[in-house]
Please model this.
Amino acid sequence: MAVPVSQVMTHAPTLPAMFDAPALGTAHGAASPALRRPVIGVTTQTLHAIEGIPDGLPESWVMNQRYFRAVTMVGGVPLMIPLFADDLATVRALYEHLDGLLIPGGVDMDPVNYGEPMRPEVGRLDAARDAVELQLARWAIADGMPVLGLCRGAQVINVACGGSLYQDIPAQLGTHLQHDCYPTRGFTRTHLAHPVAVTPGSRLEAALERSSVQVNSMHHQSVKTLGEGLAITAVAPDGVVEAVEGTGEGFVVGVQWHPEVFDADDPSSKPLFEAFVRACVEYSERR
Model:
């Protein structure tokens, strides 16, 4: 005998219920058994937007697993967000289940998103990712949901708030400091390229518990015009913006480096993810 669809839906677990588990601070790692682990949305990228991907592979959305492991390392549950740029209603339905948003690194943003013509130095683009990440960032910031942006993710936060970017640091700023220390240029992903000075009293300083940190660097774009409601909270020795954060009460932090590639005890890595996931737990409790 067939079971009515309504009965199946009535007894099906909700998405958050699927992730019920001890959160940070319980016997398995954090505070109260009643708390569930926060669900962190992690955006993806279009496979064929990545340089070197051969033709003929299926249309796919992918993301480096280190971002997911960084989230689970500190008690969060990562949820991959597909790039339904043509179906934002589905993106919104996924968003409603999130306690936080992590925007990873990736390809360049199309300058059309901040109203500028494209320079010849701009690399590969991912229009679907631009559309979905900008929308998610705007929803999250408006709702007070914690947001952490890494490299490209910091730039997405800035553009989502109305800011703009330097499309190519060497061409537009002529800096002496190398920021584009990519593996394709012979650098390891953990190569410490330069120090950054962190603004005293900032949310970033509170998370890292230090006013200076050595970072890796794999970007050729950076914040130009600062977005509304943001503050610059870290700079490189040449003045290039290395971090921004929201000026309101919510956790909105973007850094230009890649903390996800380091070991758990790295001073620029785990403390930042821990602060982010704590903010996600607090947001979940307020909802």
